[in-house]
Specification:
Length: 80
């Protein structure tokens, strides 16, 4: 018997705007962009202009544990 309560919810691919991130982390805009420049925060996944920038699920991973995210991405960074 198939029970509808046993089904898993569909994964939602959310895109977060800068105001969403600022509110969630209580950061300033300049602080977020400084973290990005240092490789300590995810880069935007979608940039369609100066007023339309969106981040993807990587932001959720960063907020769960920033130190783990930074360590994992520091290993994959290639310096030129």
């Amino acid at each position: 018997m198939n029970n509808l309560l046993d089904t898993k919810p569909a994964q939602v691919n959310a895109l977060y705007s800068l105001p969403n991130i600022l509110e969630r982390g209580k950061f300033s805009k300049s602080h977020i962009y400084n973290l990005i420049a240092r490789g300590q925060f995810p880069k935007p996944a979608l940039v369609l202009g100066p007023r339309f920038t969106r981040w993807d699920i990587e932001v959720d991973n960063w907020f769960k544990n920033p130190a783990v995210w930074i360590a994992a991405h520091a290993e994959t960074e290639v310096t030129t």
